[in-house]
Amino acid sequence: ADVAHGGQIFSANCAACHMGGGNVVNAERTLKQDALTAYLANYSEGHEAAIAYQVTNGKNAMPAFGGKLSEGDIADVAAYVEDMSSKGWA
Ligand code: HEM
Predict the structure, then answer these.
(1) Which of 3, 35, 44, 59 is the most exposed place for a label (fewest CB within 10 A)?
(2) How confident is the model at residue 58 (pLDDT cuts 50, 70, 90)?
(3) How do residues 41-57 score in pLDDT, each as one tens digit?
(4) 62 CB under 6 A from ligand 1?
(5) For the chain, which residues make up each domain, given as ranges?
(6) Which fold has domain 1-89?
(7) pLDDT tens per residue, range 18-29
(8) What backbone torsions phi and psi does residue 62 show, to the nearest 5 degrees?
(9) Residue 47 CB–ligand 1 contact under 6 Å
């Protein structure tokens, strides 16, 4: 996956709600590693796959991107989120 391209996808599609790895809609559901571990389904079984699943399908107030972004773009943005969360979004 192309992490740099994932960063561009993130800026265009995710940052409105997840600027800096936060969450302006539901403050607990951030993209930080502790929140992903606590709230993201199946995160422990595969980090990027779990992120890609939620991006594809959405959840509650988060829209689904499966009809909007290609599988490749979703894999890239998942790799970007994983890379940034592993660095604490610093
Ligand atoms: C949750 C990624 C776009 C709103 C999440 C989670 C991930 C994620 C990984 C799980 C975090 C957790 O449970 O702690 C992304 C990515 C996006 C994107 C990569 C772009 C492709 C958006 C947008 C919105 C949004 C545009 C607002 C309109 C939310 C909300 C949750 C969430 C409300 C919590 C869902 C719940 O558990 O009830 N997002 N997101 N996301 N996201 Fe997004």
Answers:
(1) 44
(2) very high
(3) 999 999 999 999 999 99
(4) yes
(5) 1-89
(6) Cytochrome Bc1 Complex; Chain D, domain 2 (1.10.760)
(7) 999 999 999 999
(8) -90, 125
(9) no
